[in-house]
Specification:
DNA-binding; elongated; nucleus; Transcription factor MYB20-like; single chain; mainly alpha; SANT/Myb; Homeodomain-like_sf; 283 residues; 45% helix
DNA sequence: AAGGATCACAACCGCGGGGTT
DNA sequence: TAACCCCGCGGTTGTGATCCT
């Protein structure tokens, strides 16, 4: 018997999520919490399969997610954990609060792997590359391993020397990071700490329902949702502190399909639960 | 300035594990 | 025990952004 598809693919939407879909998913999750993913699309009025909804929520919309590049210490931890666990991204992610397996996997493949190869280290074994892949030009060029990785010249275990070495950024890497921080990319290290008292909470404006943005970026959707003066792309503590300001009501999070605000009433018990949830994340 | 190459990351796909019947 | 269902994981792909020539 063949495996049943995760969902009926006919008529279901694929590809990038729109702001409208994000709204629906966030509204649903905040109202109902996590329930059966398979049933969620129907209940939330989405033309997506449950799997797609789960991914979108866990990898992108969850309010406790950190955004931005991994910090140096996070990167160090990822390398260390990868040496122990291999490509078990979800296990690795469980050690990094606010980071998802997908995010870590992507960061590994695009940044860390490259760094390691550059330094003559096999990203799979975490050991110095001894016989370079002749097809890999970069490896060929770079395979004069940095002395600190040569086992004979180091009293450290391979993993330990690797971790310390990889996080000692090369001049080039520093340039890269500078470039990134001057572009639109955000590194969590670069985000200034904000005192909670500095956060302004703006009451919901009734004329702000429509947005011209069709992008699926979390920034735009969250602006659309009119979260009070909140930037979800930065530190989540700040986000949640914003949520817990006196003026803030959980009802403000909920927006009707046609853009009207406050159409969904939250049960006081659920409201309390939501706040507990937010407080829990703060701790 | 234009177009191709490369990069970065969101999203998809298929499989396996675990729970339930 | 087998069949089924759902969820989560890891690999891969698609696409927009950026860089380079």
């Amino acid at each position: 018997m063949g495996r049943q598809p995760c969902c009926d693919k006919v008529g279901l939407k694929k590809g990038p999520w729109t702001a409208e879909e994000d709204k629906k998913l966030i509204n649903f999750m905040l109202t109902n919490g996590q329930c059966c993913w398979r049933a969620l699309p129907k209940l939330a009025g989405l033309l997506r399969c449950g799997k797609s909804c789960r991914l979108r929520w866990t990898n992108y919309l969850r309010p406790d997610l950190k955004r931005g590049l991994l910090s140096e210490s996070e990167e160090k931890l990822v390398i260390d954990l990868h040496a122990q666990l291999g490509n078990r991204w979800s296990k690795i992610a469980s050690h990094l609060p606010g980071r998802t397996d997908n995010e870590i996997k992507n960061h590994w493949n695009t940044h860390i792997k490259k760094k390691l190869k550059k330094m003559g280290i096999d990203p799979v074994t975490h050991k110095p590359i001894t016989s370079p892949d002749p097809t890999d030009d970069q490896t060929k060029e770079q395979n004069q391993p940095n002395e600190q990785f040569a086992p004979a010249s180091s009293s450290m275990s391979p993993n330990k020397s690797l971790v310390s070495a990889i996080t000692e950024e090369t001049k080039e890497d520093r340039v890269d990071r500078t470039t990134l921080s001057t572009s639109n990319k955000i590194c969590t290290d670069d985000i200034p700490l904000i005192d909670p008292s500095e956060i302004l909470v703006q009451p919901r404006s009734s004329s702000s329902a429509s947005s011209t943005s069709s992008s699926s970026s979390s920034d735009s959707i969250l602006q659309d949702l009119d979260f009070p003066s909140m930037d979800w792309s930065c530190d989540n503590n700040v986000n949640l502190i914003s949520l817990l300001e006196d003026d803030f009501k959980w009802e403000d999070l909920l927006i009707d399909d046609d853009g009207n605000s406050n159409m969904i009433t939250i049960d006081p018990i659920d409201d309390q639960a939501s706040q507990d949830w937010a407080y829990g994340l703060l701790l």
